[in-house]
Amino acid sequence: MSAVKGICVIGLGNFGLNLATTLAKSRQSVLVIDADQEKIDKIGDIVDNAVCGDATDEAVLRASGVKNCECAVICMENNLADSILIAILLKELGIQKIVCRATDERQKKVLIKAGATFVVLPERESGIKLAYTLSRRGMVDYFAPSGDFAIAEIITPKSWIGKSVLEIDVRKKYKVSIIAVADGTSEEFTLLADPNRQFKDNELLVVAGDSASIERLTSK
Q1: Cα distance between residue 48 and residue 28, in whole Å
Q2: Which of 95, 120, 145 represents a domain boundary (last residue)?
Q3: Taking the CA atoms of the chain, what radius of gyration do you get in angstroms?
Q4: Residue 163 confidence (pLDDT)
Q5: Domain edge (last residue) among 73, 102, 120
Q6: What is the pTM of this model?
Q7: How far apart are CA 203 and CA 157, in angstroms?
Q8: CA-to-CA distance for 115 and 66, rounded, in angstroms?
């Protein structure tokens, strides 16, 4: 999968700041826009371009070079009206992917109608993630990108140790796919390409499947 050609982050609250910084560290081309000059000054040396201005102003958006970005992420905090207006402007400017931050399902529906192609609810998603990792003994991390589909990092079940994917018949019996595996001491994951590779003690697995199947797997 090729990298996104230019990402614009609008709004440098905690969410936007962490997003922009992480993207930049991942060598993505990042443009940030915020009306607070102090915030712009702090991140100016980290990202490719930092613009101080009101993103609800079409002239500011045009001058920022946002049209050169394939994706724009609207991270405005507690300001639904501004997020809606910015989404509309970005859509009119031809941005292919418009991602918005929302606090609840009501805001999500409104933002999608305004032109957002994807809406994240970080508070809800972090709560779900924490609930799963706390309530499931074998689960280390959990991510549900859409619908019922989920990706989780789990401790290798004891009953799997010394057996291979083929022997266990993981996909048929547990209805999950194993994507990667890591030694629990290093946590450096590698793709699990060999179905005959035997599972070892003290390993971590990245599995994908529907949330109910993953929940059943980690409840054993």
Answers
A1: 9
A2: 120
A3: 21
A4: 92
A5: 120
A6: 0.62
A7: 9
A8: 16
